[in-house]
Write a structure and sequence with these properties.
Shape: elongated
CATH architecture of the largest domain: 3-Layer(aba) Sandwich
Number of domains: 2
Number of helices: 5
CATH topology of the largest domain: Aminopeptidase
Largest sheet: 11 strands, mixed
Distance between the termini: 30 Å
CATH superfamily of the largest domain: Gcn5-related N-acetyltransferase (GNAT)
Structural class: alpha+beta
Order of helices and strands: HEEEHEHEEEEEHEHE
Length: about 210
């Protein structure tokens, strides 16, 4: 259940971050990230969580650098069952038809900047001499994926994140979109009309302090 949505999210998330080296192994998507603190990410549904855990625990990467993203109805139960893997956080896989997302204008005196490639849309909202908020949306044939939605702490509570999401949705047109929401971000997306599909457990091999 939700396997197709998880796959579509992974494809867009990987495209957004330039992580184009991935493959299927035992029904687990193996994304070769290559960063010092995250060498690889294993993405799977709960029915393939054991296979993902085995891959993480037996690969050649340093402790703490093999990560997992597992869609599950019960993150706490799954986290307990995945030990000695280290549960980092719970996120939520969400979706919407972008034509149905609520719209919000960019408040004055902020200025909107939009740049596009064939597969990635970048939005920045600038004001007072700095980037106040930004976000990205990967646009693929499988759908669109919103990613890296951030607001500078000095500019929060001014509707900038909603304006970023509005600009991304308008640029990506009427596609079905997905994202993985943090606990802080989830209320924002719900207020825009996004629907939660399933929780997602983020875990990794033990060895370093969580970041």
């Amino acid at each position: 259940m939700h396997e197709e949505a998880l796959t579509r999210w992974q494809r867009g998330w990987s495209a957004s971050r330039g992580w184009t080296d991935y493959q299927q192994v035992d029904d687990v998507t193996v994304v070769r990230v290559g960063e010092p603190q995250r060498r690889v990410q294993y993405v799977a549904t709960e029915q393939n969580a054991t296979a993902a855990a085995h891959l993480a625990l037996t690969d050649c990467h340093p402790p703490g650098t093999s990560w997992l993203t597992i869609a599950t109805d019960d993150p706490d139960r799954l986290a307990a069952g995945l030990k000695p893997l280290e549960a980092i956080r719970t996120q939520w896989l969400m979706t919407i038809s972008l034509a149905e997302q609520a719209t919000y204008p960019v408040p004055a005196p902020y200025i909107l900047e939009v740049s596009e490639t064939p597969s990635v849309i970048d939005v920045r909202i600038c004001g007072y001499g700095e980037v106040a908020a930004s976000g990205r949306m990967a646009v693929l044939h499988t759908g669109a994926v919103a990613d890296m939605i951030t607001t500078d702490p000095a500019h929060r509570r001014r509707g900038l994140a909603r304006a970023v999401m509005t600009a991304l949705a308008q640029a990506a047109s009427t596609r079905t979109a997905y994202l993985s929401a943090s606990p802080d971000g989830r209320p924002l997306y719900e207020s825009l009309g996004w629907t939660t599909l399933i929780p997602v457990l983020v875990a990794r091999t033990a060895g370093t302090s969580p970041t």
